[in-house]
Design brief:
There is one protein chain. Helices cover 37% and strands 18% of the residues. The protein has ten helices and ten strands. An eight-stranded mixed β-sheet has the order 4-3-5-10-6-9-7-8, with helices on both faces. A two-stranded antiparallel ribbon has the order 1-2. The longest helix is centred in the first third of the chain and has 29 residues. Keywords: DNA-binding, Transcription, Transcription regulation. This is LysR family transcriptional regulator. It comes from Ancylobacter radicis.
Length: 324
């Protein structure tokens, strides 16, 4: 068998990080090295290959044509090696699958249904963690993520309520299943309403409950319904997450704007009403996100099949308790 003629692996690591960041300094921070050490690694690789990989300017670097071509190869090899190592490590070290879900989706929709999965598949151990941060599905913190946002390449209409939350750190190799659309509806305690709400503008007679993770929800929704909204005149009752806004609405503190899927939970639907219904979809949807390196795991496939069935059931339900 012939001996492999590979470039120095440490030099490849330094080159890949520098090419990805287009910075020796940021690459050094990532690798816990000095900037000079990364620069020397790259120079060693250039000597080994007999090619300049970077053009070095005074305050920046850029890849040469040869460097760009070589980077694409190295990036692919490193990604595949990372995925293979991750598959082996997870199978050995953790019998549970970890699902990273948005806090409100986790507490209001996913957790109350999880017993259905366990009853059907008692061999599945699922761990739920709450987060609104972009999921890093190549890291060890989650096998599956549930997020809301814009799918790359999908077109949205101008005027749809914005969703600013990033779903993943990198889309390479990520498989996305749409769970349900994001449609915002106003909800409040029935006792709050002192008069009929015939139009969206009538809502402005009541305090509005804002959610900081979706700061444009009310302004965009009102604008989409033809209502001029002056933020300066709004007292801005704010809460960190939708489940907090729901609790404030139950207490009669104002009208909250929340995704209609949250009303699928009977406990929520019984205590709130929708004073004005609108079918305007936001510029984004809820997605089940799985990296391709995890798709072969039977536990992941079982969870994926189950939650997609649950999402279909949810989409066919009517869950808009209107004010009488």
């Amino acid at each position: 068998m012939r001996k492999r003629r590979l470039p120095p692996l440490n030099a490849l690591k330094g080159f890949e990080a520098a090419a990805r960041h287009l910075s020796f300094t940021r690459a050094a921070d990532e690798l816990h090295l000095t900037q000079g050490a990364v620069s020397r690694q790259v120079k060693e690789l250039e000597v080994e290959l007999g090619q300049d990989l970077f053009v070095r300017h005074t305050r920046r670097i850029e890849l040469t044509a040869e460097g760009e071509q070589f980077y694409r190869v190295v990036e692919g090899v490193f990604d595949e090696l990372e995925r293979a190592a991750l598959r082996l490590t997870r199978r050995r070290s953790d019998p549970a699958i970890t699902i990273s879900a948005l806090p409100t989706i986790a507490s209001v929709w996913l957790m109350p249904r999880l017993h259905l999965l366990v009853a059907r598949h008692p061999e599945i151990e699922a761990r739920i963690v709450s987060s609104i941060e972009a999921a890093d599905l190549l890291a060890h913190d989650a096998d599956i993520a549930i997020r809301v946002g814009r799918l790359p390449g999908r077109r949205y209409e101008r005027g749809q309520p914005r969703i600013e939350l990033p779903m993943v750190t990198r889309w390479d190799g990520v498989h996305a299943d749409e769970l349900f659309p994001d449609r915002l509806v106003p909800v409040c305690a029935p006792a709050l309403l002192t008069s009929d709400v015939h139009e969206a503008t009538d809502i402005l007679a009541y305090p509005l409950i804002h959610t900081t993770t979706r700061r444009y929800a009310w302004p965009d929704w009102l604008r989409a319904n033809g209502v001029r909204y002056e933020a300066e005149s709004d007292p801005h009752l704010q809460f960190g997450h939708f489940f907090m806004a729901l609790d404030a609405a139950r207490q009669g503190r104002g009208i909250a704007l929340v995704p209609d899927i949250l009303l699928a939970q009977d406990e929520v639907a019984r205590s709130l009403c929708v004073p004005f219904s609108s079918e305007i979809a936001s510029a984004g949807e809820y997605y089940l996100l799985i990296h391709e390196s995890r798709m072969e795991d039977s536990r992941v496939q079982i969870f994926r099949s189950w939650i997609l069935d649950e999402a279909v059931t949810l989409r066919t339900r009517s869950f808009t308790p209107m004010a009488e």
